[in-house]
Design a protein that fits this description.
The protein is an alpha+beta fold. It has four domains: about 70 residues, Winged helix-like DNA-binding domain superfamily/Winged helix DNA-binding domain (Arc Repressor Mutant, subunit A); about 45 residues; about 80 residues, SH3 type barrels (Roll), CATH 2.30.30; about 70 residues, no CATH class. The protein contains eleven helices and eleven strands. α4 runs antiparallel to α5 and α4 runs parallel beside α6. The longest helix has 18 residues. The protein is elongated and about 100 Å long.
């Protein structure tokens, strides 16, 4: 079969484009697709290899025997090593932070970085481990969209399903930070000038608004985050997730049939109001200074109703 210059140009560009996209090139399959001989495809591959060398790009074309394909391998020293990829894979798997589809896609792309390495089988074995994910919702687009809004100080509208609810509620928020505390991602936002934490997998839809806001105007008198002495408290409410919604980095120390013991750093200013809002469902244990302050506040409240 006569191989015209036009068809050859299209074929080589097609192969090169897919290689740059991280795909593998199987010689036999390419020959069938373009209706040419395998030797013709081999010449195309050799030309691409020569071009990469002359262009001094930070990659080389290498045959991966385990997959029977040619792939582009990064030679830049800034790329992740196989050891670093393994560590990241283990963290991702144990985090259970993404849906099964997203997790597989992330792991496959990480493994492709060192796929030509003989030790890549170790990474493939890690990927084969079945992990119980928390939910099926795709989070990566949400994380990016919210991060963009934070960068631009843009107000957002979110449709949020609160704990114990089945129907979402529309909320206008001012996003301040994206936080991860295994196994959930959270959005720290200002809702009516009060710091609120929203669990990201409970957001059904989100929309960026044209309106902007100034962070400095919201918290110029008090710091937004205080990571001072940890607070230990008992929570006797029906939904312990309420605590995680307010303190995404809280630790559940222990639990029984009657209460959950939590430990958390203060997250946000004027935290006493939130503790008081939980009523009899919450009891501060430590630090003792905060416990005594809460007792004084409750006693003062009792005085307001002593005549009733």
């Amino acid at each position: 079969m006569v191989d015209s210059q036009q068809s050859k140009g299209y074929r080589v560009l097609s192969i090169f484009d897919r290689l740059m996209d991280g795909q593998g090139i199987n010689k036999k399959q390419e020959a069938l697709t373009h209706q040419v001989g395998e030797k013709t495809i081999q010449r195309d591959i050799d030309e691409i290899r020569t071009y990469l060398r002359k262009a001094k790009l930070n990659c080389r074309l290498q045959y991966v025997r385990t997959e029977k394909v040619y792939k582009l391998i990064q030679t830049d020293h800034n790329r992740l090593s196989k050891e670093q990829v393994l560590v990241i894979i283990k963290i991702l798997i144990q985090s259970r932070a993404f849906s099964k589809t997203e997790m597989n896609e992330l792991l496959e792309k990480l493994i492709s970085i060192v796929a030509a390495d003989q030790d890549a089988q170790i990474l493939l074995k890690e990927k084969s481990v079945e992990v119980d994910v928390q939910y099926n919702q795709s989070l990566v687009p949400f994380i990016w969209s919210i991060s963009e809004a934070i960068q631009k100080n843009k107000v957002m509208t979110i449709d949020y399903v609160a704990e114990g609810e089945s129907i979402s509620t529309e909320k206008m928020v001012k996003p301040l930070a994206v936080i991860f505390s295994a196994p959930y991602f959270y959005v720290l936002a200002d809702n009516q000038d009060s710091p609120t934490v929203y669990r990201m997998d409970r957001i059904q839809h989100l929309r960026e608004q044209d309106k902007t806001f100034q962070i400095g105007e919201l918290h110029k008198d008090q710091p937004l985050i205080d990571v001072s002495e940890p607070i230990r408290f008992l929570y006797r409410g029906k939904y312990p997730q309420t605590v995680f919604n307010r303190f995404p980095t809280a630790k559940l120390v222990s639990q029984n049939d009657h209460a959950y013991l939590f430990e958390a750093n203060v997250f946000g200013h004027d935290i006493n109001r939130w503790f008081l809002s939980q009523g009899a469902d919450l009891e501060i244990l430590e630090p003792i200074e905060l416990r005594e302050e809460m007792i004084e506040t409750i006693q003062a409240m009792q005085q307001n109703y002593h005549c009733i």
